[in-house]
Amino acid sequence: MLEALVAIPFLWCKVPVEVALPLVTNMLAIAPFVSFAFYYKSKGRVNAALLLLAIPLLLPNSFALITSMPRGFINGLAFFTLWPWIERIRNYSLQYVAYGGLLAAALVVNPNVIFIAVVLAGLQYNRAEHRKSATLFFLVGASVPALLHVLALRWAAYHSDQMLHFAWSLEWTIDYFKQAFSGPQFSYFKGVVPFTTEYAEYMWFIFPLFMFYAFWKQNYLLSSLLGLVCVGVIVSLGINKVNDGTQSVFFPLSRMFLALPLVLAVVVSELISENEKSYFRFAILIVAGITLGFNMQNLNSDIAKEVNDRSVPLSVKSIAELRMQTDQLNAFAKTNSVFYFAGMGYPMDYGEFQVIFYSGAAWHDDFPIVALPEYERRKWESRKIADISAQHTVWFGGQEFQWNDMSSVAGVEAYDILNLRGYRVTSLLTHREVLRYHGKSSVIGE
């Protein structure tokens, strides 16, 4: 993911991984607003720049929480940080190749950018001096990410045995559409509209209001683009994937609409006049400051509310507790010459074990290899289990039948299994564990 790549320099600077990843993720989410603000400032449009900087401050804490989780929600959005500066490319054809390539790459990385893509593409098309040639070069640039995406899909089709997650077969149905409006809580716009989370479904109407305002200001292009966005948002509620989520910030329905704040920021910045009195800028700063103060005051309570929400399957563990567990596991591994921690079965079979062992690998350079033979996202690790039979290995997770028949674990031969009872780290591993050496099981810690 893009977040992990950008976080590397922070890790080089010894920033803890649990700080670096959320920090970088949030920075990538805010970067387009800052970039567009500097762009408008360079054009002498101070009011527009201030509005662009103010919009993220007007959003509720749920936006900050959602965009601080490195889960790929904002990868595509971050690409638009470069968008306003492409016009500095002096070669006209290369400029529109870059526009097309950037937009297509963002869509390929995460299609939730579709709404800001429509707005920016429409505005840029209207500004083009030679629209036919601009369209041609735009399509040429877009064809490169599109081709790479097609090739990736073909590769995946021919190597289905290496795929863990397959693309959804998208469909629109009236049932999903009705469900969107009849659910227990209308959470599709949680965190993506200003000021409120509880009444986000009402605050969403700010977009149609600006559509009519643009029409009243005779900015028919912007009004039409906002109309497309509004219609697109409503129609998308009938898509199955758009309904794949919860009201929790940890798996929010609103992740599909994370581009809407940038849409709002760009639209308002295009509409605002630079002829406004100086008190207009003062008012922006006052409102943004008050909202920021309110959000800061309620941050801890908002976090607690999300963490304590039991409507979603969620395991909460403090960083300190997790760090202590991984430190103990690492010490245990050194004492017993453990080479592998191997998960048996699928994630639901070992729950929080995955978090514990993955965290250990992130915090300790000498942590044993963590391999999940049947569900390993890191393919470079799964290749290392070829010689697993010749090493000390601790197995965790699994179901009863898997412990009765060790051969059910992909790529691992069957061995005698001895369950550990009274083992000193059972507080860490509540399921059965076994240390295996050269094909022979042995009970340790007794």
Features of the shown structure:
446 residues, mainly alpha, 5 strands
Structure, briefly:
The chain is mostly helical.
Description:
The protein has helices spanning 2-12, 17-42, 46-58, 61-66, 75-78, 92-109, 114-127, 131-158, 174-182, 200-203, 206-216, 220-236, 260-271, 278-307, 319-335, 347-350, 353-363, 379-382, 400-404, and strands at residues 340-344, 369-371, 393-397, 435-437, 440-442. By secondary structure, it is mainly α. It folds into two domains: 2-307, no CATH class; 320-442, no CATH class. It has a five-stranded mixed β-sheet with strand order 2-1-3-4-5, with helices on one face. Helix 1 (2-12) packs across helix 2 (17-42) and helix 6 (92-109) runs parallel beside helix 8. The longest helix has 30 residues, at 278-307. It is globular, with a radius of gyration of 26 Å.
Count of strand segments: 5
Number of helical stretches of at least 4 residues: 19
Tally of individual domains: 2
Task: Compute the separation of the termini in Å.
Answer: 43 Å
- The ordered H/E elements are HHHHHHHHHHHHHHHEHHEHEHEE
The major beta sheet can be summarized as: 5 strands, mixed
What strand order characterises the main sheet? 2-1-3-4-5
Mean pLDDT: 78
Rg from Cα: 26 Å
Low-confidence segments, ≥5 residues, pLDDT <50? 407-446
Query: Beta fraction of the residues?
Result: under 5%
Secondary-structure-based class equals mainly alpha
Give the overall form: globular
Helix content: 40-55%
